Amino acid sequence: MKVLVPILAVFCYVCCSPKTNEIFPVDESYQQEIIDWQKERNRNIKSPKGWLSVIGLYWLQEGRNKIGSDPSSDIVFPDIAQPRVGDIYLENGELYFRAFGEAYVSKNDKGFREGTMYSDASRVPTELSHKSLYFYVIRRGNKFGLRLKNTLAEKRFSFKGIDNFPINNKYRFTAKISKSESHDSILINDIVGTETMYKIENVISFKIKKKTFDLLAFDGGKDKLFIVFSDNTNNKSTYGGGRFIYVNKPEPGSDQVVIDFNKAYNPPCAFTDFATCPIPPPNNHIDIEINAGEKKISDAH
Description:
By secondary structure, the chain is mainly beta. It folds into two domains: 2-46 and 161-286, no CATH class; 51-150, Tumour Suppressor Smad4, CATH 2.60.200. Helix content is 8%, strand content 37%. The protein is built from two helices and 21 strands. It has helices at 28-46, 154-158; strands at residues 2-3, 54-59, 63-68, 75-76, 86-91, 94-99, 106-107, 110-111, 114-117, 127-130, 133-140, 143-150, 172-178, 185-189, 195-199, 202-208, 211-219, 224-231, 243-248, 256-260, 285-286. Strands 13, 16, 17, 18, 19, 20 and 21 form a seven-stranded mixed beta sheet that branches. Strands 4-3-5-6-9 form a five-stranded mixed beta sheet, with no helix packed on it.
């Protein structure tokens, strides 16, 4: 059965909820693991095509969309671009690009004059580049948008880094994993108002501060589960739109996973106004403060 509205009821898993969590001791190797993870997060965010390089998101109209730095363009690029870079055609969900005149556009470091484009809804979205600009199409519901990045964006170089809570082993523990007994999918809103159906892969149950929580986990790629959650630090010490966390899938035959909130991280929307992040479903609100992982960003926007 699929749920077409946000679920308001709390899942009950009395028989499978853990009575206690195994808290892992903190040792030097674990401390270093988290420090290395934090460094990698900063490198990725500040990379030439990381989220700090995003400078625009433009929703495409049906038919031809002229792109370039000319103010009369349908999508106006920064002055670094040619006055007319090309045209993106959107027709019944199909995308096509055609470069204009002598404007040089590349795909995978090779010149690209024209051809079919694929959005991020496909396995391999088409990413095109023009000078220091990169652009590709995203699909959200029935809407298609052009996301624009500039590898020379000023905030890539001015960003001071992500602040984190002190590493705390109280927020790293084993949790119970089970299948949802009530629903197999849920409709989740994003910050631009579109809705996407997420398949519920598992429910992850744990107890913290004498409260038991059951979080919906979604597909996170190979060997991973993905959780969008909120907690009582949001809009205070952490980003108001919640945070994300990945959990490794259990070993074959096991019903336990390790959840480590020291690796809870900010969604892209914490760094740019041009991302389209999912909003944590009501089920995934943790009604305590999770003082672990990444804190609110003060200088990204």
